[in-house]
Amino acid sequence: MSPPDQSQIPLMQECLRLQLGQLRLGQNQLGIHNMYKSSPSSSLCSSGKQYNLVSKQFTSPTNLIPLIYEKQVMLECLYTKDSAAYGTVRVHNCNYEKFVYIRLTENEWQTYNDITASHSMNFPVDNTDSFTFQIVLSKSNDDTAEPKRILFAICLKSMSQEFWDNNQGWNYVLDVFERR
After folding, report:
1. Which helix (H) or strand (E) holds 15?
2. CATH 2.60.40.2440 at 6-178, yes or no
3. Residue 72 in contact with residue 92, Cβ under 8 Å?
């Protein structure tokens, strides 16, 4: 039996830490119709209903590093648990000054809000950095309709440029389901 590919070990460790909830997650700065906030214990409730976030379409990319060099920013890992989604974004470390955020919408881009991602780890061997983010459904007003899905894309701002990862034009999707 041969040892695992050493270049994949940091990726596996990062995803495992994300799944165990041990990553330091930054402040969630989202406020779409007062439906989202940074409290991981809250869930979307309207008349006693609770909702879960589910990502049915995301799979972690393979051969990640060449893709990061080409696109500058990529969603590396996405994990959902109950009413929360946790993600890891990997970026090309082409400049010390960089800003990573998640742009999301609940109404097909009629309006949107941005969540700042927090720097998590530097990978000097492949000259990349990882950032983490969290999306949490919170209590909604009784008159607010619950979204059926949340679309999002990721942006890296560096050197007066913007680089986007929008799932090759399809956006990343979080479906919202009523918890039964």
Report:
1. helix 9-19
2. yes
3. yes
Query: Can you tell me the distance from the alpha carbon of 22 to that of 57, in angstroms, rounded to the nearest whole number?
Result: 24
Can you give the residue ranges of every domain in the chain?
Answer: 6-178
Dig out the tokens for 55 from the structure: 């990502």
User: Which class for 59: exposed (0-12), middle (13-18), buried (19 or more C-beta within 10 A)?
Assistant: exposed
Q: Which two tokens stand for residue 105?
A: 């919408």
Q: How far apart are CA 42 and CA 82, in angstroms?
A: 10
Give the tens place of pLDDT for each residue, 63-115: 999 999 999 999 999 999 999 999 999 999 989 999 999 999 999 999 999 99
Q: Please give the Cα distance from 100 to 158 (Å, whole number).
A: 9
The model scores a pTM over 0.85: no
d(CA 83, CA 137): 5
In Å, how far are 136, 143, 152, 161 from 104, measured between CA atoms?
12, 21, 4, 20
**Which two structure tokens, joined as six digits, stand for 134?**
């969290």
- In angstroms, what CA-CA distances link 12 with 8, 16, 62, 68? 6, 6, 12, 17
Q: Which two tokens stand for residue 34?
A: 């007062």
